[in-house]
Amino acid sequence: MMLSKQLVLSLLSIICFVVISGCSVLQQSLEPLEVDVVKVRVLPANGMQQRFLLNLQVSNPNGVDLPIEGVSYALSLNGSSVLKGMTGEVPLIRAYSSTELELEARTHLLGIVQLVNTVLRDPGQQFSYELDATIDFANWIPSMNVTRKGDLPMVR
Predict the structure, then answer these.
(1) Measured between alpha carbons, how far is 109 from 54 in angstroms, rounded to an integer?
(2) Percentage of residues in the chain with pLDDT exceeding 70?
(3) 97-138 pLDDT per residue, tens
(4) Long-range contacts for 145-148 (Cβ within 8 Å, ≥24 apart)?
């Protein structure tokens, strides 16, 4: 039995509609991840770049596991953009759970000067921070931008 061209086009149209509708529903139903900076640790320098270890608590308030392909992030301390990094090594964020991530970040020479200047003025102070991150998901889930502000002590 041969299918008519009109029937094949109708079936393809229905399949496309279902796929597009499914992607739309998935995008609308995802709650944003909750990301908090737990601590920032200074690591040994590597040449002209100072390295830091960021500990982030990532909570998934959704009913589905979220496979992450990569994260790019930047951290400002006391209004100065000092840390940047990216990684493709992020574990699966399970549904209704929290995961602590350790991410390495680097700063450039100007960022080091600004940070050292801030620390020398008041070594025991709390730092106000702003974290900007872009999270890229696998499986056609749209990327998510996260911005978080707060205060934290510098840990050595």
Answers:
(1) 19
(2) 72
(3) 999 989 888 886 676 677 677 667 766 667 788 889 999 988
(4) 146/32, 146/33, 146/35, 148/35, 148/36, 148/37
Reported as a single tens digit per residue, the pLDDT across 79-102 is 778 788 998 888 899 999 999 989
CA 58, 60, 65, 67 torsion-angle sign: negative
CB 13 within 8 A of CB 5: no
DSSP of the chain: -PPPHHHHHHHHHHHHHHHHHHHHHHHHHPPPPEEEEEEEEE---BTTBEEEEEEEEEEE-SSS-B-EEEEEEEEEETTEEEEEEEES----B-TTEEEEEEEEEEE-HHHHHHHHHHHHH-TT-EEEEEEEEEEEESTTPPPEEEEEEEEEE-B-
pTM assigned to the model? 0.68
User: Do residues 68 and 30 lie in contact, with contact meaning Cβ atoms separated by under 8 Å?
Assistant: no
